[in-house]
TrEMBL record:
Highest taxon of source: Eukaryota
Organism: Phyllotreta striolata (Striped flea beetle)
Pfam families for the chain: Lectin_C
Protein name: C-type lectin domain-containing protein
Signal peptide positions on this chain: 1-22
Boundaries of every C-type lectin domain copy: 41-164
Entry keywords, A to Z: Disulfide bond, Signal
């Protein structure tokens, strides 16, 4: 119990320090691996994982271990930027976890698990969400010719994922 408290305080201090210096806090491990799978957009730094696939829960845990969180997309412009980046880098053949889930109190209420905020912007693929087979998480991919769109899917599917960290503490919504 004490170790969890120390870890929480340590992460909070690192995050606070990052906000004071207007830099993102990202683990030393990921900082040492900054390759073409990193990009910045409007106050966020993104890391696109293409090394391994995992389920939603492990992807969320991995991002948190690195001082980041799973992807949240709050606007058409942000969705388009992610789409363009993935296409430009030839990564548009993969499926990617987002932080979106409806595992809360109501299956019709989608939230960002990383912030707890209700999702107000959606980019569903045609016929989605269809909520078949306990589809409680959202992945993004090229399902049709509509670009990077969203699909509700079981949280246990193995996907790649995108982590993000904020670099804009003034617009941080906690």
């Amino acid at each position: 119990m004490l170790s969890k408290l120390v870890l929480t305080i340590s992460f909070s201090l690192c995050f606070l320090c990052a906000c004071v210096h207007n830099e993102e806090y990202v683990s030393q491990y990921l900082q040492s691996r900054r390759t073409t799978n990193w990009f910045n957009y409007v106050g966020k730094t993104y890391y696109v994982d293409t090394v391994f696939k995992t389920n939603y829960y492990k992807a969320m845990h991995y991002c948190r271990q690195q001082g980041m969180q799973l992807l949240t997309i709050t606007s058409e412009a942000e969705n388009k930027k992610i789409e363009e980046y993935l296409k430009e880098k030839g990564l548009n053949g993969n499926r990617y976890w987002t932080a979106a889930t409806n595992l809360g109190d109501r299956p019709d209420r989608w939230v960002w698990s990383s912030t707890g905020h209700l999702i107000t912007y959606f980019k569903w693929d045609a016929g989605e969400p269809n909520n078949t087979d306990s589809e409680n998480c959202i992945e993004g991919a090229w399902f049709t010719t509509n670009g990077f769109t969203w699909n509700d899917v079981t949280c246990l599917r193995s996907n790649h994922f995108i982590c993000e960290a904020t670099t804009d503490c003034y617009n941080l919504k906690c």
